[in-house]
């Protein structure tokens, strides 16, 4: 009798979940953006929100909750009702790096289901143009000729730009010292001025200085060459097969949202992401717009990215608490 009762309860819960998914959505959806309004991530979030609203036939409201290195907004979604009406503009900074680097982060990756990867922000390794360095192998040779090693800039300890260069440093067995700056402009200016030797930076922010020949691009960290830097080789083809480092942005929900609801969100999200209008707008900003991926592929993407960053964080024993 107890077994029968349990089966009936389970069946009822399953029917309720199916009914919920069939009706979803019945009210406005909130997309929480853990960044300030007006920035590039916010612009992407608003484009996704508009597209989702069209696909799901319901308003999608953007709610900016910046602060604490994205932890405020991300933590808010982790504690939201598991009904699919509170979405997160996710990134590897919030999903992966924060939990790795901060012991007191009010959430962990397993509190979420990332259901779509929208874009990757490719990185480019740039050097001072006065250096006789035009590719990664020349950089490695040059680093060995400098007794004290090379200096590289970034936007701060534990940032993706810092860790990306550390991954390259570890792979290539170079001797490099990190010099953190308060922002991208200062870090790039330091390379252009010769105060430091190199930097790994997001392509879109480096392009003005690259175009002005104030910094020289020697490699991109993505798996394939970029259209905007077609003559610049990848790190992978420069002697390090499989090398791939980039930041990414996507969409996530609280982990207990019913699978059927997440599937609806997944389908709607990729209708937006793979549209010509979204692709043209964000590829023009130097981003790599992603192809349609099923949930298993999205999960694998996130786990592969986690393993890459975790290895260098553990190796360098990095902590920002």
What does this structure look like?
By secondary structure, this protein is an alpha/beta fold. The protein has 2 domains: 29-120 and 247-316, 3-Layer(aba) Sandwich (D-Maltodextrin-Binding Protein, domain 2), CATH 3.40.190.150; 122-238, D-Maltodextrin-Binding Protein, domain 2 (3-Layer(aba) Sandwich). Helix content is 45%, strand content 20%. It is built from 11 helices and 10 strands. It is elongated and about 70 Å long.
Strand content: 15-25%
Can you count the helices? 11
Report the major sheet.
Answer: 10 strands, mixed
Overall 3D form: elongated
Please identify the structural class as seen in this structure.
alpha/beta
Cα radius of gyration in angstroms: 22 Å
Q: How many beta-strand runs?
A: 10
**Unreliable residue stretches:** none
Oligomer: single chain
CATH class placement of the largest domain: Alpha Beta
* CATH topology grouping of the largest domain: D-Maltodextrin-Binding Protein, domain 2
Run of helices and strands: HEHEHEHEHEHEHEHEEHHEH
* CATH homology-level superfamily of the largest domain: Bordetella uptake gene, domain 1
Could you tell me the mean pLDDT? 92
The CATH architecture of the largest domain would be 3-Layer(aba) Sandwich
As a percent range, the share of helical residues equals 40-55%
Determine the N-to-C terminus distance. Answer: 53 Å
Overall tally of domains: 2
